[in-house]
Amino acid sequence: MSGFLTGFLDELSERRRRLRKSLGDRGQALASFAILAGLMLGSLGLYLKPWMIGVAPWGFAVPAVFVIGYLLIEWRRQADQARAGDSEALIARYDWTARFFSLACALAGAAAFVIAFSSEPPAPQIEEWTPPESAVSVDISP
């Protein structure tokens, strides 16, 4: 496990460097912020209104899916790297896979928030109210 973890952290930092090289400092920061904002909106944003949790409860699962999926992508990358060695095609393929997966998770989180925020609150329960018999005296005779 320690070999996997160190390889994962090394590749994570290299992937950030490659993203910064391709998008620039501001572009990389904006991309990272957008991904984290989508994940946070999908989970913590659902606490904004009381009924939002019931409308999109799957928003809470998006960060867990993100972490598990990212670990699975890295596990496959390390397995392919052990078989084929380092190559530019392998690096580029897994960079794009990680980018698209991160973007998909961020969009799923933002979608959970938008669906829940745009939903109508549940209608209040209106109980049938009748006045007590002693409150109104009515003498109606036929």
Structural class: mainly alpha
- The low-confidence runs, each spanning 5 or more residues with pLDDT under 50, are none
Query: How many structural domains?
Result: 1
The geometry reads as rod-shaped
Cα-to-Cα separation, first versus last residue: 90 Å
Number of helices: 4
**Beta-strand content:** under 5%
* Helical proportion, percent range: 55-70%
Mean pLDDT: 86
The biggest beta sheet reads:
none
Q: Could you provide a short overview of the structure?
A:
The chain is 70% helix and 0% strand. It has 142 residues and is an all-alpha fold.
Keywords:
4 helices, single chain, 0% strand, mainly alpha, rod-shaped
Describe the structure.
The chain is mainly α and 142 residues long. It has one domain. It is 70% helix and 0% strand. The chain is built from four helices and no strands. It is rod-shaped, with a radius of gyration of 26 Å. The model has no long low-confidence stretch (mean pLDDT 86).
Helices and strands in order, then pairings?
Layout: H1 2-43, H2 52-55, H3 62-84, H4 88-117
Helix pairs in contact: 1-3, 1-4, 3-4
